[in-house]
Amino acid sequence: MNDAKANRLPSEPTLHRLPWYLAYVSLLRSRDVEYVSSTAISKEINVDPSQIAKDLSVLGIKGKTRIGYEVVSLEKALRNFLGFNRKHNAVMIGVGSLGGALIADTGLERFGLNIVAGFDVNPDIVGSSIKNVPIFHIDELARRAVAYNAEIAIVAVPVEQAQAVADLAVASGIRALWNFTPFRISTSPSTVIQNTSIYAHLAVMYNRLGVDDESGVENCF
Amino acid sequence: MNDAKANRLPSEPTLHRLPWYLAYVSLLRSRDVEYVSSTAISKEINVDPSQIAKDLSVLGIKGKTRIGYEVVSLEKALRNFLGFNRKHNAVMIGVGSLGGALIADTGLERFGLNIVAGFDVNPDIVGSSIKNVPIFHIDELARRAVAYNAEIAIVAVPVEQAQAVADLAVASGIRALWNFTPFRISTSPSTVIQNTSIYAHLAVMYNRLGVDDESGVENCF
Fold first, then answer.
1. I need a surface site. Which of A126, B13, B172, B180 has the fewest CB within 10 A?
2. Which segments of B83-117 does DSSP mark as H helices, in order?
3. Exposed/middle/buried for B64, CB within 10 Å: 0-12, 13-18, 19+?
4. Which residues in B lie closer than 8 A to residue A26 (C-beta atoms)?
5. Contact B42/B56 with Cβ under 8 angstroms?
6. CB of A187 within 8 A of CB of A179?
7. Min CA distance, A109 vs chain B (Å)?
């Protein structure tokens, strides 16, 4: 790989697919499989083999002809490239039902997400802690975000507050927003934003379930 | 709207955008705004006004020229169309850290998701309950899914088990899978599947944060 290529950012679709490959390769490793071809990955993941080879080329490792990729090296390269083996400090803004649940989800830690503090306005929870993560008043965000060296703010507040807390987070030096609200937050291009559209996924499932299915069974909605 | 149009399924991108409009319209309603135009929604949401008008046409309601949509009716129509005001029975498969957190997140209930039971293999949690949701052994899934009239299975198991539990859920009469694992589950076309790619979103944030930002500050990864 030449320098120009190495410096080019992988596309968002590529970054979305890489964790799929990682999941499958981890599974193969747990089964003591030694090598895997892009064709074999393709059959499992339902992505074109040439797309897989192209996606994996960002890692700077190549499969061997007719043998494929070495599973252990590929897993390590993927985890390393994706940053899942490094700690990324994050703050949770909004420690209601979802925010509290996400703090309690220790699984995120295994993917490098280190939630260092939560922020809320509810006097019942400000001053408490969840799994050793302290909850502060939102007024302390600016000061604490710097002290904690937080890079990411997870936004799990009611829709009415989403834009305001996002602006506050960015003003506090936060560079990435992970938005769990259904509100479209506006940001400047220098802020990274990812929307996890829980409600959008519910909408698709409900809609498709509500339509008469192939077996002709009438749905009761 | 004619019958042919009414029977046509809205596309997945349309269904993904409708909850954004709902979030914004709910915000306007809470501020006692009476009417909203697609242009005004467009400015907030960053979607083309003609696309918004097209998306909203699936609801069968029309905006008035120069005035726009009545906020209260639009909110009601969106919530109704999206199925957020009806109960949809779901089972949680895998009651580890994430599965337990999602059961505890009462916010999903307000969007019509009714988690009726959890299933796991861990003897420490089988037989217990979370917020009154009972946790059973996975062997009981087939029987219980029918008894509970469950339509949706939320998959939050380790990657190694994802495909097997999905197959079991479908064999138990479940018609929609909400996959929280990074594993690509294979299903027949008659099963609805939605993937909530938590790890994909982390991957994008980590990658973009790891690149020197516009201000020229070198990142320490």
1. B13
2. 97-104
3. exposed
4. 159
5. no
6. no
7. 11
Let me know: does A41 contact A52? Beta carbons within 8 Å: yes
Contact yes or no for A68/A130 (Cβ under 8 A): no
Sign of CA dihedral B59, B65, B66, B67: negative
Q: ipTM of the predicted structure?
A: 0.88
Q: Do A203 and B100 lie within an 8 Å CB cutoff?
A: no
Specify the DSSP element, H or E, that contains B70. Answer: strand B69-70
Note whether A177 and A187 are within 8 A (CB).
yes
What 3-state class would DSSP assign to B36? Answer: strand
For the segment B125-173, what is each residue's pLDDT rounded down to a tens digit? 999 999 999 999 999 999 999 999 999 999 999 988 999 999 999 999 9
Whether the model pTM is above 0.90:
no
Identity of the amino acid at A141: L
Nearest 10 degrees: CA dihedral of B113, B52, B57, A220?
-10
How many whole angstroms separate alpha carbon A69 and alpha carbon A37?
A: 6
- Interface test with chain A among B44, B75, B207, B217, by most A beta carbons within 10 Å: B207
- The pLDDT tens digits of the residues spanning B96-134 come to 989 998 998 888 998 999 999 999 999 999 999 999 999
Q: Which residue bears the tokens 């008035």?
A: B64
Among A93-102, B58-67, B112-121, where is mean pLDDT lowest?
Answer: B58-67
Neighbours of A175 (CB within 10 A): 20
d(CA B47, CA B53) in angstroms, rounded, equals 10
A5 pLDDT band, cuts 50/70/90, is: very low
* B78 exposure class (CB count in 10 Å sphere: 0-12, 13-18, 19+): buried
Say how many CB pairs under 8 Å bridge A and B: 217
What would you measure as the largest C-alpha separation in chain A, in angstroms?
62
Q: How far is CA B90 from each of CA B119, B162, B215, rounded to the nearest angstrom? A: 11, 17, 47
DSSP state of B86: S
Residue positions counted in chain B: 221
CA B118/CA B92 separation, integer angstroms: 4
List all residues 6 or more positions away from B68 whose beta carbon is below 8 Å from its beta carbon: B35, B36, B37, B38, B40
